[in-house]
Write a structure and sequence with these properties.
With about 80 residues, this protein is mostly helical. Helix content is about 30%, strand content about 5%. The chain is built from 2 helices and 2 strands. Strands 1-2 form a two-stranded antiparallel ribbon.
Length: about 80
């Protein structure tokens, strides 16, 4: 006979505001993430087969965060030589 361990999970309203803010995204952050994701996906031709994997990302030397290459590309169209 198998043993199962049950761990109760609190409802969202049972967490403190500090913990809630760390676990869940607010509407502003959610909107910013959606905009960033749309920009990144558009740069990949809206094709899930061509998305940039972790190995193709840049890594921030300060935070260690992965950065999509589209955020590092410069626009040279209006650059004067």
């Amino acid at each position: 006979r198998e043993q199962v361990r049950v761990t109760p999970i609190p409802m969202r309203s049972e967490y403190s505001h500090r913990i809630r803010d760390r676990l869940w995204t607010n509407r502003i952050e959610l909107h910013e993430n959606a905009q960033r994701n749309a920009l990144e996906f558009a740069s990949e031709g809206w094709d899930w087969r061509t998305v940039t994997e972790d190995e193709g990302m840049y890594r921030c030397s300060v935070s260690g965060e992965l950065i999509h290459p589209v955020h590092c590309q410069q626009n040279y169209e209006n650059y004067e030589y």
